[in-house]
Amino acid sequence: MIERMPCRIKLLPVEKGAAAFHDFEEYERLVDVARAIDQRTYLIVLLGGEAGLRCGEMIALEWGDVDLAKRQLCVRRSDWNGQVGTPKGGRQRYVPLTRRLTAALVEHRHLRSTRVLCRDNGTPFTRQIVQGRMLLAARRANVRRGVHILRHTFCSHLSMRGAPPKAIQELAGHADLTMTQRYMHLSPAALDAAIGLLDRPSGDQSCGDILAAAGGSKTTNESGGITGGEAGIRTLGRAFRPYNGLANRRLQPLGHLTADAKCT
Is 110 annotated in the active site? Predict the structure, then answer.
């Protein structure tokens, strides 16, 4: 028996592939199909696609976590095969509700259980039930199958509409920006604004609404605000525009995000 390894093994880095997601047309088609199936399937699609909840977070969501007056929900627990614990990352988060998701929750309101998603007899949904409903809806809508793809869709649509990485991180509950950056290649807003700097006259040294923040340096913008700590280029004010140039596709609204969900 070899007591120790005679050499060191260095694993080669493997590039992570882009996260699969539904485009705007596919997502709206899935929403329509889910609504036609029943209210609970419809709610599953919206909780994943417009609030970014993971499967276990949907199952563990209770009515006490939903504030319809403030139009927000609190993700404070997750269910894994009947065992309830904290969400991935170990901390709770608050997510503003879209108007469409708010209306669905109001329509779905019941007293059968403290859980939002439950059977007619009040027993909570299981992971298998959620997955089965999503499989049926995806087949009928002719889109990619899976529950977690809804969460990827949530993050991707926010990025494509120009949401800042930090906002997506907070809404999705990512532990750090590394995971959030998987979706940033979908957002050309910051890149377009950065290239726009090259169109300025050579004598114009101002950055306008573009704020460069590299390393830990602090930079002052035109309004006097100071920021720093995030590498790369962020856009502020007028330069921060939602992306709407998806190859002649008509973009569908993401349920009309509330003001709390839009970071400026």
Answer: no
